[in-house]
Amino acid sequence: MYDIQKIREDFPILSRTVYDKPLVYFDNGATTQKPRLVVDSLVDEYYSVNANVHRGVHYLSQQATELHEASRETVREFINAGSINEIIFTRGTTESINLLVSSFGEEFMEEGDEVIVSVMEHHSNIVPWQLLAARKGIAIKVIPMNDKGELLLDEYEKLFSERTKIVSVTHVSNVLGTVNPVKAMIATAHAHGVPLLVDAAQSIPHMKVDVQELDADFLVFSGHKVYGPTGVGVLYGKEEWLDRLPPYQGGGEMIQHVSFEKTVFNELPFKFEAGTPDYIGTTGLAKALDYITALGLDQIAAYEHELTVYATQRLKEIPGMRIFGEAAEKGAVISFLVGDIHHFDMGTLLDRLGIAVRTGHHCAQPLMQRLGIEGTVRASLALYNTKEEIDALIAGIERVNKMF
Ligand code: PLP
Q: Quick check: is 363 catalytic?
């Protein structure tokens, strides 16, 4: 039983008002709201357990370490990784990608080598590769898409060459909602002898993601997009790859022994975790993952699908509506423009009605160029949204439409 009213009560912010209107929050792709038990866990840990992890012999430090390492196990189980050594805590998707690009690029890429990305990547899966290109002279190849927003898999195949060293693609587009067939894309990459990084920032909150089932080499996501706290994220990597990669940052925690002559790095996963980790944040993340596991990812996916179908159908009834992204496999993200109303105007006016949507290029300017537009209005849904909120959005758009 998916008891939406009870679920909404778990998220205190949902009962606030904005400009004296009930808040309707449709900016979940940017960040999700937090259930009470996540925020409570942060407060509780600061008040009753706080101590730096891994270094102390004292009681609190040991307790904090146990909580932190238990969170790693929760993440491992959540994505079905083979070992906790494969779970690296970072600050978020962006840092996870930068870590991987830096370490992988350092060890395995030379001038003239190639990475394959797709046209629908977030800037965080483009710019780190461009920085590497500037440092090392690597080339970036781009998988194109059709007008529905589906990647062209035949073209993907053709992009592989002797110089391809890695593929890095998003699981779900944060603009189009397209669910890319990453399992098949991983198989193709492996057939060419190269690993694939999955940017799961927009899939982890909405569907079951099993790294072993996908056979993903690397997979990254952010805690704050999956009902967890800000400032914590994950890089999953197969142990056989992580073992071969050099550290990203140096400092405490990531070493076994330091002398001025020679430093021995720590084992996995600590080799990649320099400095004090956000051990309070990792507990919050684990609570968030436990929360959605208890609700059931299949139930969440089914509920969000129903909402997305309903929203799409209602939006299409609005005169002048253009929806961007109509892939056969599509998640809970709807990008649109209405007539020639500027996306900022639409977003600003909806905001006055208490409706939070995102406007702009959504950190995907190359995709905007492909679509021939500057930006869109984006409603991205979460497990706590309702049909009534979609009705409010539709009424809001109709009102703005009349004003123009
Ligand atoms: N990748 C995708 C697909 C995203 O949607 C986002 C954020 O919107 C990111 C990466 C970056 O995530 P973060 O800002 O949490 O590092």
A: yes
